[in-house]
Amino acid sequence: MPFELFIGLRYLKAKRKSTFISIITFISTAGVTLGVMALIVVLAVMTGFEADLKEKILGTNAHVVVVRSGAPMEGYQKLIEKLKGFKGVNAATPFIYNQVMLSSGKNVSGVVLRGIDLESDRKVTRLSKSVVEGDISRLNPTLSGNPDGLPGLLVGRELAKHLSLFVGDKVNVISPMGNITPLGMVPKMKPFRVAGIFNTGMFEYDSTLAYISLDQAQIFFDLGDTVTGIQLKVDDVYHTGELARTINRELGANYYARDWMQMNKNILFALKTEKMVMFIILTLIVLVAAFGIASTLFMVVMEKTRDIAILKSMGATGTSIMKIFVLEGLIIGVTGTALGIASGLLVANNLEPIINVVQKVTGQNFFSKDVYYLDHFPSLIIPGDVVMVSVTAVVISFIATLYPAWQASRMLPAEALRYE
Questions:
Q1: 147 and 187 part of one domain
Q2: Looking at the DSSP assignment, which residues form a beta bridge with residue 98?
Q3: Domain end: 202, 228, 260, which one?
Q4: Which residues contact 188 (CB under 8 A, 6 or more apart)?
């Protein structure tokens, strides 16, 4: 063991004349522990929220969407086969996208109506798995089982609550792009039967989306054998941007491909920015603890003035003296970091039970599932985040030791022993 480390450990273990220094050492270690623990827990929660949000977005939307500029897409069957030939594309499905109004009794709501191909849509999105009431297969009028033969309509849970709809209820779909008559434009209206209710977990989707079969959408919007666009499912959801650019180059200016990150860039950017800001803010806790480490070393240097002078008289260099106090400060920082990592991982892995206990003890509901629209408290630990937090804490602790250690290395033996 190097003698610098040996002496640094002795200084930490030795009983000091002033207990105040020991108290500050404990506070400094606790400060580093608290800062590291807070960083790990907050980053785990924010990463969990981000992952949960991405899962919900990808559960409703495709990874890549291809549309035709300014006109419906003709010959989409051949284009689907061509798109399946691109590297990384697993499946493709056509869709129709338009804005309509739903009317049920006195309740009216504007929604986005999507026409989907039931068979191929199952391979691209997870809509069928989001159905909580009814049956998505009943979108097909031949399978709906309705005595009046009305085509089926799939609505979100929040939309169903707003319109007071239940499975089997009749609802009118009104398109503003209606028929031209001598009296002017007359909106087109057609009755549908609620075939099912879905719950994606996102209020925006569950309150504004409705689905019908592709052929019924083509009939209702007078599109013939055309569609709005094609949805793609790919192997790697985090490299869809490159695929979208490749499709744009290959298909030309008449077609436009966008990936899910582009379509949701505002919310994804907000989450990323918020996570970065929280990391910076919580790092200040570690900085405060670093000031405690520096204060501890300053007082240890003052207390060990005679020891430093004796060591220098025996031949210790300024670099060796500096190493002693740098190592002493690093021991405090590393100890606090290790305790912070252990406690942070423990809390992050058991966050939901801890919150439930706190809510029962205090009688307060800090995490309302109705408000936050989540069925669980997400927490996801990424090893890279833990490493980043650990390195940051140790580096800050190391920087805090430099100035007091440098001051100790500059001490002159004659000046220190003058009044001894």
A1: yes
A2: 113
A3: 260
A4: 174, 175, 177, 178, 179, 220
Looking at the fold, whether 96 and 186 belong to one and the same domain comes out as yes
Whether 14 and 66 map to the same domain: the answer is: no
Task: Please choose, from the candidates 302, 143, 264, 159, the residue with its C-alpha nearest in 3D space to the C-alpha of residue 213.
Answer: 143
The verdict on 394 and 312 lying in the same domain is yes
- Residues 273, 162 share a domain: no
- Let me know whether 213 and 359 are in one domain: no
**Which amino acid is located at 412 in the chain?**
L
pLDDT, tens digit, for every residue of 140-190?
A: 766 555 566 788 899 999 899 989 899 888 999 988 776 665 655 667 888
Is 50 in the same domain as 78? no
Span 309-316, average pLDDT: 71
**The pLDDT value given to residue 292:** 81
Cα(371)–Cα(369) distance, rounded to whole angstroms?
5
Q: How many CA atoms lie within 13 A of 230 on its CB side?
A: 26
Please name the amino acid found at residue 5.
Answer: L
Q: Which phi and psi angles does 224 have, rounded to 5°?
A: 65, -140
DSSP state of 73: B
Tell me what percent of the chain is helix, strand and coil, each rounded to the nearest 5.
60, 20, 20
Axis-axis angle for helices 305-313, 318-349 (nearest 10):
130
pTM of model > 0.85: no
d(CA 11, CA 200): 60
Asked if residue 387 and residue 315 are part of one domain, the reply reads yes
User: What H or E segment, with its residue span, contains residue 213?
Assistant: strand 209-213
Q: How would DSSP label each residue in 391-412?
A: HHHHHHHHHHHHHHHHHHHT--
Of 205, 236, 260, the position where a domain reaches its end is: 260
Q: What is the pLDDT of residue 55?
A: 79
Residues 6 or more apart whose CB falls under 8 angstroms from that of 230 comprise 65, 66, 67, 73, 76, 79, 80, 83, 92, 93, 94, 95
Phi, psi angles (nearest 5°) of residue 382: -105, 125
Boundaries of domain holding 325 = 3-55+267-416
- All residues at 6 or more sequence positions from 69 whose CB lies less than 8 Å from its CB, including other chains: 253, 254, 255, 256
- Split into its structural domains, the chain has a count of 2
| Cβ–Cβ under 8 Å, residues 300 and 21 | yes
362, 403 contact by CB (below 8 A): no
